[in-house]
Amino acid sequence: MKILVCISKSPDTTSKIAFSEGNTKFDENGVQYIVNPYDEWYALVRALEIKEAQGGNVTIITVGNVADEAIIRKALAIGADDAVRIDAEPTDAYFTAIQIADYAKKNAFDLVLTGKETINYNGSQVGGMIAEVLEVPFVSLATKLDVNGSTLTLEQDIVGGVQVVEVSLPAVVSCAKGMAEQRIPNMRGIMAARTKPMQIVEPIACDLFTTYSSYILPEAKKACKMIDPNNMDELVQLLHTEAKVI
Amino acid sequence: MKTLVYINSDNGISKSSLEVVTYAKKLGGEVVVVSGGNSSDLARLGEYGASKVIVDRAVVNGDEQQITKLIAFAAETENAEIIVFSHELTAKAVAPRLSVKLKAGLISGAIALPDLSSGFSCKVNVFSGKAFGVVTVNTAKKIISLLPNSVQPEITGAACSVEEISSNAGASAVKIIATKKPEGNIPLPEAELVVSAGRGLKGPENWGIVEDLATALGAATACSRPVADIGWRPHHEHVGQTGVAIRPNLYIAAGISGAIQHLAGVNGSKVIVVINTDAEAPFFKAADYGILGDAFEVLPKFTEAVKKFNASK
Ligand SMILES: Cc1cc2nc3c(=O)[nH]c(=O)nc-3n(C[C@H](O)[C@H](O)[C@H](O)COP(=O)(O)OP(=O)(O)OC[C@H]3O[C@@H](n4cnc5c(N)ncnc54)[C@H](O)[C@@H]3O)c2cc1C
Question: How much is the pTM?
Answer without folding.
Answer: 0.93
